[in-house]
Amino acid sequence: MIDIGINGAAGRMGRRLVALASEDEQLRVVTALERDGHELLGNDAGVVASVDAINTPLAAQVQNKPKVMIDFTVPEAFREALRVCRQQKIAMVIGTTGLTDDDYKAIDAAAEDIAILHAPNMSLGVNLLFALVGQVAERLGDDYDIEIVEAHHRFKLDAPSGTAMGLAEAICHATGKQIDKDFVHGRHGESTRKRGEVGMHALRIGDEVGRHSVHFGTLGEEITLAHKASTRDVFARGALRAAAWLADKPVGRYHMKDVLGL
Ligand SMILES: NC(=O)C1=CN([C@@H]2O[C@H](COP(=O)(O)OP(=O)(O)OC[C@H]3O[C@@H](n4cnc5c(N)ncnc54)[C@H](O)[C@@H]3O)[C@@H](O)[C@H]2O)C=CC1
Ligand SMILES: O=C(O)C1=N[C@H](C(=O)O)C[C@H](O)C1
Known about the structure:
With about 260 residues, this protein is of the alpha/beta class. The chain has helices at about 10-20, 45-50, 75-90, 100-110, 125-140, 160-175, 180, 235-245, 255-260, and strands at about 1-5, 25-35, 60, 70, 90-95, 115-120, 145-150, 185, 200-205, 210-220, 220-230, 250-255.
């Protein structure tokens, strides 16, 4: 049995993580964290997630030390969780997006003391897409314009999505482009396309779980690589799989492609 913690346990992702972990014979949720002052603190995390009670109440501090903490919160809460996990030697799976360059440096530093994995998207399909867009971008070159489009629910805090940034990084890695020089976010007014430029566009609409597409177009043809998540369970299952995988790994920084064998 692997003891896990969920940070952000009453959130959209947190509830699905608790629910799916309760069906998994390998995993036990021993700590379920929420922000100080949250109205559901003290309630059983299973009941909050609309499954049977798991005898773990939502709490603002770690009560039973887990082997792996899964974090799906907001950047500020992630930073505090990283500090606590590093200090208490708890491995971490991080799904929170909207992180800064300094946050990534802090993850690298923590990897000296704990096993740690951050992925902006835990689904198999998107992680495969990361590899595919790099291959296509490299093969097609700058004769093909690239546009990244993402759509998410109206409650999403960050834009572009972490996944869209991951797609951008995959393109940069394969082509030598640079995010701060070669990418434009939306277009308005005088905005003639430059050769080699990559456009990024974010839609925020209703209850959209998550859609990403990368368009490669030239005069006469267009290729589109696209992914659509229709349920958050695809992310939650990936995060639980990553937690089980990470539990016995030595300290260091890991990636979803390591977990998925891509
Ligand atoms: N990597 C991936 O596959 C995915 C990543 N995400 C990311 O996960 C994050 C969370 O997404 P949602 O679950 O939709 O958001 P949400 O807003 O539904 O849930 C976040 C939860 O964190 C809690 N929280 C805030 N401060 C806290 C603190 N100090 N301590 C403990 N809990 C705290 C909130 O009260 C809330 O319940 C976002 O950054 C999102 O982009 C979402 C889906 C998939
Ligand atoms: O906030 C979300 O919901 C999602 N966030 C992640 C992101 O920013 O890419 C992953 C997924 O698309 C859902």
